[in-house]
Amino acid sequence: MFNLKKTGKIMLAVPNITFNGQAEEAINFYKEVFNGEMKNLMRYQDEPTEQPIPDNYKKRIAIAWLYLSNGKNILNVCDAAPGEPLVIGNNIKMDMFFDDKEIYSIFDALSKDGKVITPLAETYFSPNFGLVIDKFGINWYLMQMPQ
User: Fold this and answer.
1) In what order do the strands lie in the sheet with 74-79?
2) Where are the alpha helices (DSSP H) in 5-97?
């Protein structure tokens, strides 16, 4: 997914912008504005899940990476998942990518006086992935990169 040097620390922090069915339009707009290149687009219909996807969500964007013109900055753009209402204010999150087990201590620190939405657990895309809202109301997606 990324060509980043492993440091044993946070590898990458990426803003995640969520839309309500307009992600593809937004990608095309930001691609032009920032002279970017879109990579890793996945639609909800293509996710390896056993959960049924409503017909009106199948073509929506589950994830897309927009590399900005310098090639070093990335925007993660997606549409809200089925059953997750989009509220202005929760539509911008921080994705944090790790290459080691430091993810546990950071997840625990962000969780203190906050709210765990998804505990750290293995997924089809990561050995450890979790979601937490910190005590300031900031949404954090933490993911350990596969080895």
Assistant:
1) 37-43, 61-67, 74-79, 10-19, 92-98, 139-144, 128-133, 115-121
2) 23-33
